[in-house]
Amino acid sequence: MHPQRQARVARALKVFSVTAYVTGVFLLLLVAKMVYVYLIVGKENAPGWLDYFGIVHGLAYMAFILASLDLGTKARWEPVKWLTTMLAGVVPLLSFYVEKVRRNEVRKTFALH
Prior knowledge:
cell membrane, transmembrane helix, single chain, transmembrane, membrane, mainly alpha
């Protein structure tokens, strides 16, 4: 395998991993916010700054989709793998698991450390 391709895939993998974790963390915060607002205090008593969790998760998810496309293109994934990877950003805790699985796959395939 050409070293330049390995380097491109390694960079894409790093961005993918970071965006997967950020997306996962903000999705968990968003779920916690929804439980707090809708089950504990009520929407009218909730602080307004909690709304930013949803906004940040949305932005992080868009970055995660772009990072998944970038890594998928460079690693030459099948479209089904792209789709399942991208959907992991909307299921709580799944982005952490899928990131680990994809990271291990890519590291093994491209002999990355």
